[in-house]
């Protein structure tokens, strides 16, 4: 049930595309107690006008620099919304892929951490080896390796940059655990009473 006099819990699942974030988020919504809203990159992109897409889903590489100021505002808007959900007693699960691989550093993760300051936030790193990511990309989108057998540059950049600075409250590896098992591990961590502090550290840490 909704507890309007209590701050909602926020779980941020951060990882590359095809790392399994969305599947974990879906299971959290279905199995955790209370009301869990799902707000992340896919939902936000659906709201974004076509001419500004992929919006916050823009991959690393600095390919569309003219879009970057808008992306920074979009991220701020999304996290301001997340903070309001929590303040109204709604739990939120967020699947996103934070990186700072733009044409110039935008420090978006640091800004978002400051927006959520004082709220109960667990920052979870969703890891997945590059060979498994590539296998999932081929199954889902029928796109894979370059003709010379190398990993496409944008995919390699995602893998390299999405976990900077690598400060998390916990990490899960979706090549080792199923989505259901990852959701259970996260719930266990939530219930152990330890105070999440990753975003508090990130708030005061500039990504190099």
TrEMBL record:
Residue positions binding ATP: 15-22
Catalytic site positions: 42
GO terms of molecular function: ATP binding; transferase activity
Keywords: Transferase
Alphabetical list of SUPFAM superfamilies matching this protein: P-loop containing nucleoside triphosphate hydrolases
Pfam family, one: CPT
Protein name: Chloramphenicol 3-O phosphotransferase
């Amino acid at each position: 049930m909704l507890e309007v006099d209590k701050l909602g819990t926020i779980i941020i699942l951060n990882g590359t595309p095809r790392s399994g974030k969305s599947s974990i988020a879906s299971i959290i919504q279905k199995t955790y107690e209370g009301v869990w809203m799902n707000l992340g990159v896919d939902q936000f992109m659906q709201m974004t006008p076509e001419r500004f897409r992929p919006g916050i889903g823009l991959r690393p590489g600095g390919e569309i620099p003219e879009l970057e100021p808008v992306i920074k505002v979009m991220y701020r808007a999304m996290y301001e919304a997340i903070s309001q959900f929590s303040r109204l007693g709604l739990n939120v699960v967020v699947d996103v892929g934070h990186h700072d691989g733009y044409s110039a550093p935008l420090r978006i993760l640091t800004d978002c951490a400051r927006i959520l300051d004082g709220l109960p936030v667990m920052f979870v790193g969703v890891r997945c080896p590059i060979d498994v990511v590539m296998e999932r990309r081929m199954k889902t989108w029928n796109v894979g390796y370059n003709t010379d057998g190398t990993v496409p540059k944008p995919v390699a950049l995602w893998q390299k940059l999405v976990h900077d600075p690598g400060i998390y409250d916990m990490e899960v590896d979706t090549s080792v655990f199923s989505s259901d098992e990852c959701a259970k591990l996260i719930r266990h961590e939530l219930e152990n009473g330890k105070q999440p502090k990753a975003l508090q550290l990130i708030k005061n840490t500039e990504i190099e």
